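Recap slide: DUF4126 domain-containing protein, sequence and predicted structure.
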Amino acid sequence: METILAVAVGIGLSAAAGLRVFIPPLGANVAALSGELPLAEEFAWLGSPLATAVLAVAALIEIGAYYIPWVDNLLDTLATPMAVAAGTLLTASTLGDASPFMQWALALMAGGGSAGAVQGGTVLLRGASSASTGGLGNSLVSTGEAGGSLLFTILAIIAPLVALAAFVALLVYGVRRFRARRPSVS
């Protein structure tokens, strides 16, 4: 059961990283410092006071930069590979009891995959917002993404199975909505 919870925490944090790259590592850092989140031994640095300072500054800069018109679209391009990397690392950091192969295989597939899926959805959403509002609606999208990232981060730490269920539900909803919008080939 511990492994399932660790994977659920990792996927929840990774999904949050698909919305904002630095909020979930900051949340994991705070949870590790408070003793709520055990980290794999090789990720002890994530639970350090120095990491708190670095991640807090990075999160504030990231959140603020998404409110600058056109910079937000540029950041989406940069954030996509960063989100996958963050999701992979966050999931790996929760799987300390797993063998190295299992730790990194799960981290890459589940963590990187969930972060990439969420980030891909946000890129599409921001593109649609930019196209339909000339970028004026992007601040609402940015606020929703930051709030969603914070919510998923907290859920992943205090109720990982709920976070996992919410991620799966959102993923299914997104896929169904995407398929419904595609023109059918006849």
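The two ends are 47 Å apart (CA to CA).
DSSP finds seven helices and no strands in the chain.
(End of recap.)
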